[in-house]
Design a protein that fits this description.
Elements lengths: L7 E5 L2 E7 L8 E5 L3 E5 L4 E3 L4 E3 L8 H13 L4 E4 L3 E3 L2 H24 L4 H11 L7 H6 L3 H22 L4
Parallel strand pairs: 4-7
Antiparallel strand pairs: 1-2, 2-3, 3-4, 5-6, 7-8
Helix pairs in contact: 1-2, 2-3, 2-5, 3-5
Length: 174
């Protein structure tokens, strides 16, 4: 089955799914929304970690920050009700959560860029982003020591760093 943006998949018995191309996390990424407003986001809206009750951007290299922000906007336009994450659950108030996630991505970008521009290391950027983002600060130690979330944060920070290098080389967003 080959699908593209705005493709409709008819599952029969009145069930239809709409495909939304959501690159950023990965160039081939898609999200799917059903007629009830259930949006299956894959990793394009982060990873929900219910055991620490946070959403962590999941943007390993090769990550495209510019495309990820546009993808979030495309999902907001659909006015979803519930977000279904590949990892590890679902959350209501979908539009509010997507708007907040977009802001979180911008905050992480600024924090990581500041650390790297000052000559900081990957480890310093990881620690700083978790401690300075209000969404994660209160659970910083738990997040950083978590066997899944800790490495995810490191991969995501690496994704941002590599994106900034790529964008600089291309003369784009810095």
């Amino acid at each position: 089955l080959v699908v593209g943006n705005d493709s409709i998949i008819d599952l029969g018995e009145g069930v239809k799914l709409k495909v939304i191309e959501t690159p950023g996390h990965a160039s081939h990424h898609i999200s799917i929304i059903d007629e009830n407003g259930n949006l299956f986001v894959g990793d394009s809206a982060g990873t929900y970690m219910p055991d620490v009750n946070v959403i962590i951007p999941a943007m390993p290299p090769p990550f495209r920050f510019d495309l990820a922000l546009k993808s979030i906007d495309k999902m907001i336009i659909e006015k979803p009700k519930t977000l279904y994450y590949s990892h590890f659950g679902s959350l209501g108030r979908a539009v509010d959560r997507l708007k907040d996630f977009k802001e979180q991505m911008k905050v992480w970008a600024q924090i990581i860029r500041n650390v790297i521009e000052k000559g900081g290391t990957l480890k310093e950027a990881v620690n700083t982003v978790i401690r300075e983002d209000w969404r994660t600060r209160e659970r910083a130690e738990e997040i950083l020591s978590h066997p899944i979330v800790g490495p995810l944060v490191e991969r995501t920070v690496r994704g941002f760093i590599e994106y900034f290098k790529w964008a600089c080389e291309k003369g784009g967003e810095q």
